[in-house]
From TrEMBL:
Classification via SMART domains: OMPdecase
Protein name: 3-hexulose-6-phosphate synthase
Stretches assigned to the Orotidine 5'-phosphate decarboxylase domain: 2-201
Alphabetized GO MF terms: 3-dehydro-L-gulonate-6-phosphate decarboxylase activity; orotidine-5'-phosphate decarboxylase activity
Pfam family, one: OMPdecase
Keyword entries, A-Z: Carbohydrate metabolism, Lyase
InterPro entries: Aldolase_TIM, HPS/KGPDC, OMPdeCOase_dom, RibuloseP-bd_barrel
GO biological process: 'de novo' pyrimidine nucleobase biosynthetic process; L-ascorbic acid catabolic process
Amino acid sequence: MKLQIAIDRVPLDQAESFARKLAPYSDILEAGTSLIKDYGVQALAALKKAAPDTALLGDMKTIDEGDYEFRQGYRSGADILTVMGASSVATIEKCYRVAEQTGREMMIDLLECAPETIGRISDFSNAIYCLHTSVDKGATADPNGDILAFKKRFPSVRRIAIAGGINLGSIEKLKESSPEIVIVGSGITKAGDPALAAQNFRKAMA
């Protein structure tokens, strides 16, 4: 499992500081949606400059203008960009094409997607599919069970990420379902010692 640390809802200079401090413990650093809304794609460039050797995900949550937004995001330093599963299939196809052409990666955010919707978009072989419980809704009660159920229903999807209220207790249980990427945000960035919190998550994932 890879650890993705989401940096969000902070001033850009603090986000850059987080990136420098947390890069040694993360496989992927994330420029969160609100950070990008506050500062634009410049937030991607800033975090990439702060931690150039760590993969950077830009949580663009693209839902239209897929070609344009993905090209802008990749040009600004992102290695992975997100598109909403609720987008039109045409938008997801355009995002995927840009990702493949540029040698980058696409993550499909399945926030509030019905199984029928997921079935229509489950054939992007290199895409990462993110099971995502929204901040407003709160943490999922059983992330491990959610992944196991997802794998059973969509066996062709081989790359899975999980996000939404993941804590040290749920990390332990995720070893059973073994998602490719575990996304943690405030559980690390709002800790008294974010670097120590990141180290604790890494240990729990080992």
